[in-house]
Amino acid sequence: xxxxxxxxxxxxFAARGWSPWPYQxxxxxxxxxxxxxxxxxxxxxxxxLAGFLPTLVDLAxxxxxxxxxxxxxxxxxLAADIACNFECTFADIGMPITxxxxxxxxxxxxxxxxxxxxxxxxxxxxxxxxxxxxxxPTSSTT
Length: 142
Prior knowledge:
There is one protein chain. With 142 residues, this protein is α+β, with helices and mostly antiparallel strands. The chain has 2 domains: 1-62, no CATH class; 64-142, no CATH class. It is built from 4 helices and 3 strands, in the order H-H-H-E-H-E-E. The chain has helices at residues 7-15, 22-32, 47-61, 76-93; strands spanning 69-73, 97-107, 118-127. A 3-stranded antiparallel beta sheet has the order 1-3-2, covered by helices on one side. Helix 2 (22-32) packs across helix 3 (47-61). The longest helix is centred in the middle third of the chain and has 18 residues, at 76-93. The radius of gyration is 16 Å and the shape is globular. It starts with 6 loop residues before the first helix and ends in a 15-residue tail after the last strand. Mean pLDDT is 75; it is low at 105-121 and 129-142.
């Protein structure tokens, strides 16, 4: 059963000349059914949007002033790029959502079993309360 894509998101896809990939709908359907899913798709194939689509749909349906989604990336640049892309998406859709950087993580070489340096960024997604709407999209009270 394909995931039920709310009209708000169907319009957003259509405005860009896009339509959701079948696997994006499948991930949404799994989440809507309370199931887990594993997605393997080509580079630039919409995996990130597939992973976040259930979050976006849920936040569009109901405000969540507390932490809703936690994203952990092994690469700070990747997390920053994803956060920037989603802030634009939230603005395009008109969703009052904020992304807040929670922490940057750095593990110096030697602190891992293979000696590899890992740096990353963790960010959180939550609905903004009405009082938060005048703040910048990256500001956080948490």
